[in-house]
Design goal:
With about 70 residues, the protein is mainly alpha-helical. Helix content is about 40%, strand content about 0%. It has helices at about 30-45, 50-60. Helix 1 crosses helix 2. The longest helix is centred in the middle third of the chain and has 14 residues, at about 30-45.
């Protein structure tokens, strides 16, 4: 490792993940929903927060409409 670096000679590169940046939010989720995704996490080996994000991204990309019925 050098004692000093010449910043002017460095080759700056853009962050390849900049388009994928995420925002932190606080949400109230039901225990049933959290348990479901935690169980899926155990099966897939993917963290449950990532699974929730992937599911919501899929809904957004496919422009799914919310369908609810109250019984």
């Amino acid at each position: 490792m050098r004692k000093e670096y010449d910043i002017e000679k460095l080759n700056p590169r853009r962050n390849p993940y900049a388009k994928r940046l995420k925002s932190k939010v606080t949400m109230n989720l039901s225990d049933v929903a959290i348990l479901y995704f935690k169980e899926q996490s155990g099966v897939t080996g993917i963290p449950y927060q990532t699974l929730i994000d992937l599911y919501l991204m899929d809904c957004a990309q496919k422009k799914r409409k919310l369908q609810m019925s109250w019984k």
